[in-house]
Design goal:
single chain; alpha+beta; 10-stranded mixed β-sheet; 4-stranded antiparallel β-sheet; 16 strands
């Protein structure tokens, strides 16, 4: 059976600033989808990560389906009305266009989709992050799909011996989807050279070279490239199929023990370590730290099992302690140096106007 998984996610309103959506808002979005998705989807799962609501669909309409995307867009529009009625902060924040135009990609909401022939057992992971951008997944995906230090299956599994093909997008290019395909392990150093720049080059998808099957799909939208001004960090989502000819669940999760530094945090303008959190977590400290949740499923005949919370385990409590320590240590540096993002990432913030004004006050000493 051919199944499509689609995640469509947006920030359309939050309690007390950028903390979490209200339960009434979540239920309004859920009810809209349930009422308007007849003959369109096989299954639905609704969750939030920080202040973002994510809709996970199973269906047989293929990727980029206009009817599905339109229904999701309208669900977020309906939710925005509820957010306004409740006076929630940032109502409709991620809806950057006035009307639906065929596909929500490029309109504000984050989208990750993949279509595949279901295996007899089809486990997959749905990751959702808040207060960061799509490049936050670069390092974990690189390590999980190329490095036997994190993924021993690359040595032990014949099904993975040929490696994987990475499709990488230049997200700073706004005239279209500018992509490159590179193979691991042959192009390993070239992949690394691109993925080190999290704000420009982002993994869009990964495929198995032995089967050609899709392994991972990542949302790649950059909100400031759509809106022309700072509107919040992109809060990316991703789908990863696991086991068999793909890395095992534990191999995909392993790199998240690093708590690697990513862009985001307060006002989307700082650097902070990525914290693995439990499903439906809020944000707090300095509007952060940047967080990522992992929902583990199996899908069979288009129907989801209940979600297993991949980061709800005593081991990850230790990692959260480590990430908390790293967050505080870097925040002690305030605005100085690497604690804050470079000017290219602050391009649409008020600091740019400030720098233009100050530049006029400089004098060349003779």
């Amino acid at each position: 059976m051919k199944t499509t998984l689609s995640i469509i996610k947006a920030d359309i309103g939050s309690i007390g600033g950028h903390i979490k959506p209200s339960q009434q808002l979540i239920e309004r979005v859920r009810e809209f989808v349930q009422k308007n998705s007849k003959d369109l989807i096989n299954d639905l799962y609704v969750s939030h990560t920080g202040d973002d609501i994510a809709l996970l669909f199973s269906h047989q309409k293929g990727t980029g389906n206009e009817a599905l995307h339109k229904m999701a867009w309208e669900a977020f529009v309906a939710g925005t009305e509820t957010a306004k009625e409740q006076g929630l902060y940032g109502a409709g924040q991620d809806l950057l266009k006035d009307a639906f135009s065929g596909n929500v990609k490029g309109m504000g909401p984050a989208v990750a989709e993949m279509e595949f022939e279901e295996r007899p057992n089809e486990p997959f992971l749905f990751f959702a992050a808040d207060k960061t951008d799509p490049g936050a997944y670069n390092l974990p995906l690189y390590l999980a799909f190329t490095d036997p230090m994190f993924c021993p299956g690359l040595m032990l599994s014949p099904a993975m011996a040929q490696g994987f093909t990475f499709t990488i997008m230049d997200v700073e290019y706004t005239e279209g989807d500018k992509i490159i395909e590179l193979n691991a392990p042959e192009d390993l150093y070239d992949i690394a050279a691109l993925l080190r720049d999290n704000e420009r080059f982002v993994v869009e998808s990964i495929r198995s070279r032995s089967t050609g099957d899709i392994a991972a799909a990542v949302s790649t939208s950059r909100l400031h490239n759509i809106a022309g001004k700072y509107t919040g960090k992109d809060d990316p989502v991703q789908l990863v199929r696991v086991q068999g000819s793909f890395p095992a669940t534990g191999e995909i999760l392993s790199p998240y023990s690093i708590g690697h530094y990513v862009a985001g945090f307060m006002r989307g303008s700082h650097t902070g370590p990525l914290m693995p959190v439990t499903i439906n977590s809020s944000v707090s400290y300095f509007d952060g730290p940047p967080i990522v949740a992992c929902h583990a499923f199996c899908v069979h005949n288009g129907k989801f099992t209940e979600a297993a919370d991949a980061f709800d385990h005593p081991f990850w409590d230790y990692i959260r302690e480590k990430v908390s320590r790293k967050s505080v240590e870097l925040r002690e540096q305030g605005f100085s140096g690497i604690a804050m993002l470079n000017y290219s990432e602050l391009e649409y913030g008020g600091i740019v106007e400030k720098m233009k004004r100050l530049d006029k006050q400089f004098k060349v000493r003779k």
